[in-house]
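Page header: ASSEMBLY MODEL / two components / 382 residues total.
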Amino acid sequence: MLGIRLSRLPVSAKIFCTLYLLGIGCGAIAAMGQAATAVGLTPADVQASFAREMPMTSLGPSGHGQHQSAEREISIGDISSVAKVWVRTPLLIQTSHTHLFGQTLIAGLLGLIFLFSSLGERVKSAILALPFVGTLIDIGGMWLTRFVWAPLSVLVIAGGTLFALGYTLITLIALYELWLKKETTA
Amino acid sequence: MRYVIVTLALALALTSPALAHLTPPVVLVSDRDAVVSLLPGARRFFVREVRLGDKEKAAIKQASGWTPEEDFYRFYIGRDDQGRMVGALVFVGDATIHGSVRVATAFDRDGKVRGASVVELTEETYPWVKPLIDEEFTRDWVGHDSQSRFALSDPLARARSNSMTQFYGNVIANLVRRAAILYDYGVRPSGSAMLQ
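Prediction written out in full:
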């Protein structure tokens, strides 16, 4: 773009790009570890933390304004033994705004570096869009899981995967072009 | 010098919203562990789910100033081998400015508190509440019911000297009282009759 290529950057710029990409990678691994321990990395884990609580009994649907109750016997094994974080709406709002700002800024800087890749426009556009789209699907999936349909928790995993895929592709291609690619003269 | 001050002020203004952010949750006890530890003697377990009616919500609001907002409340009922009720437990939570607080409270058949445990806090609130947990502060409320006054007792004066500890002690006391009110309307046989 604009005649600038990653492979032609001065050494200081190459070091800056490399350290930024590596730093973000370390942050992403730490973030994945945090998500794995606090919530889990499967759609079922996400559902357990984000979805609205569903009745364990035959309690009917709400909306009549009347007292309703239902009871059934359970085994102690039916009660969750996992110290699981239950994400309520205030925490969902907080998580959404910090992650939307944070991940979009990260995706923006990744994309900015990747704009100077020598790939064709179509491929470049598709790859640099991945972290942005992944972020929107990830955070959007949390809200859909809570307020629309619990099985949409799969979107949270899909969004996170897209973000990671975008980061990995951008980093590998950028590092290759920064340090290994030989410039050919026309 | 002026530029330094302006820059610092700007940086402070930009970062200050971060101070208002909630910190991550800290789960102290799983639901199962809370049920087992607070309902000793129970051999069989039942789950009773109660959706409060509009009249009940209005009565609770009038009596306590609190309006139950959950779609339904889940009580875990413990019974002995003969099917006699040993006690019931309900989890009640609240979203405070520093994050969620969730408490498990168990009751005997008459709606008297058998015990209560803080099950979830946040990283920020945990250091404020820990001195109270270390003093087993909820023991003071054993035997209380929905009509009792839930407050931090005098022997906790040292722990209460921190204003945030005092504040969260009162938040937890309110949650235990809410649990007692919910027990009256959800489990106690005469609960709904209180409205008539």
